[in-house]
Specification:
The protein is globular. It has 3 helices and 34 strands. The two termini are 26 Å apart. Helices cover 5% and strands 49% of the residues. Strand 29 and strand 30 form a beta hairpin. It has 391 residues and is mainly beta. This is WDR86 protein.
Length: 391
């Protein structure tokens, strides 16, 4: 059943649950956003808190960390940008009229999704709203971004004359059961992807292969051609809401409220592995060096051999749901609704795992949602998911 592990460090500085955990691109810092309305900056070198960002008037739902700046969004309807060195608030982005639950930074753009049924695009540097994307009939829960240059051939690009100023596109998933693709420059809806019969909780994009994957409370994962809008496949074996997705080497990993993770071969739609042992919903997952790490509502993190499905280790110590995990330098970081950030040594697991794929390509960085329910457990969607577990 796997060995139990003890944390090498427990960080207890927050006074409320941690809703999200972000790792900087250079791997030097971590950012946590909390129910206590603050964000904290941590060094991966010593796991010490080196920054405390205060100013939001309500809980922080999500955060994103760049090398030079940190971004947080909140139930106070705003987004803030912070200097990671001084802790100073550099900008406040105002305009949303309800909880902002997702942000995504891409190029010079800052994208946001809200319970006010809109997504918005902001200039990162000018503290100015550039575009509003209006058309969803309910909350915008998840975001992804790509450029048409990543997916369109030259002759196809010529057909989109009116969008030549900017070829950036935003993808939004909503509780209205739809996924929409928008031209950033005009705010025009390029595609509406219809098929889901439940809220869309997570998105992951594979632009080079022109594919988008969406997970929903209808228990399915669907894959779409992001150029034509065609639905390509439906993955149907889950018995609960699909909460999180990870794509590595044409293998799709899906975490669900049915207490399992499943691995699918994208090219055929075949389910090739099921990872069990969770006692509650799988809220977050991450693939690393042939190992699948998961976080669950049962307050445990787990490590599975990704090929065999064998449980290799259980990480116990948290008291509530693990909302997000990150991995850096063979250390596992877990952030929980119990308010703690825990650090675990995973060198032993990595050494024991001998069957590592030679070339691993994880699709990440373009999607804002690869992990936890976080705030969803405290709203109607979260209540619905908990009911599936018989609570």
């Amino acid at each position: 059943m796997g060995n139990s592990g003890s944390a090498v460090k427990v960080c207890t500085d927050h006074q409320g649950g941690i809703n999200w955990l972000s790792l900087s691109p250079d791997g030097q810092r971590l950012l946590t956003g909390s129910e206590d309305g603050t964000a904290r900056l941590w060094s991966t070198a010593d796991s010490q808190c080196h920054g405390h960002f205060q100013g939001h008037e309500s809980y922080i739902t999500f955060c994103h960390l760049e090398n030079e700046a940190a971004f947080t969004c909140s139930a106070d309807h705003t987004i803030r940008k912070w200097d990671v060195v001084t802790g100073q608030c550099l900008a406040i982005y105002r305009g949303h009229t309800s909880i902002v639950n997702r942000i995504l930074v891409a190029k010079d753009y800052l994208f946001s999704g809200s319970y006010d049924r809109t997504a918005r695009c902001w200039s990162v540097d000018k503290e100015k709203q550039i575009q509003e994307f209006r058309g969803h009939r309910n909350c915008v829960l998840t975001l992804a971004h790509y450029s048409s240059r990543d997916v369109l051939e030259e002759e196809e690009e010529e057909e989109e004359e009116e969008e030549k100023v900017s070829r950036d596109l935003l993808v939004t998933g909503s509780t209205d059961c739809t996924v929409k693709v928008w031209w950033v420059s005009s705010g025009r809806c390029y595609q509406t992807l219809l098929g889901h019969t439940g809220a869309v909780l997570c998105l992951i994009l594979d632009a080079p292969n022109r594919e988008l994957f969406s997970g929903s409370t209808d228990y399915t994962i669907r894959t779409w051609n992001i150029v034509t809008g065609e639905q390509l496949k439906v993955f149907k074996e889950h018995q609960g809401s699909v909460i999180c997705l990870e794509l590595v080497n044409r293998h799709l990993y899906s975490g669900s409220a049915d207490r399992t993770v499943k691995c699918w071969f994208v090219d055929t739609g075949e389910r090739i592995q099921t990872y069990k042992a969770h006692k509650h919903s799988v809220s977050t997952l991450k693939y690393h060096a042939g190992i699948l790490f998961t976080g669950s509502g049962d307050a445990c993190a787990r490590a599975f051999n990704s090929r065999s499905g064998v449980l290799q280790k259980i990480f116990r110590g948290h008291k509530f749901i693990i909302n997000c995990i990150q991995i850096h330098n063979e250390l596992l970081y877990t952030a929980s609704h119990d308010g703690t950030l825990r650090v675990w040594d995973i060198r032993g697991i990595c050494k024991r795992n001998k069957r590592r794929p030679k070339k691993e390509r994880s699709v990440q960085g373009r999607s804002s949602q690869k992990g936890s329910l976080a705030r969803l457990f405290n709203n109607k969607v979260g209540c619905m998911i908990q009911q599936e577990n018989g609570e």
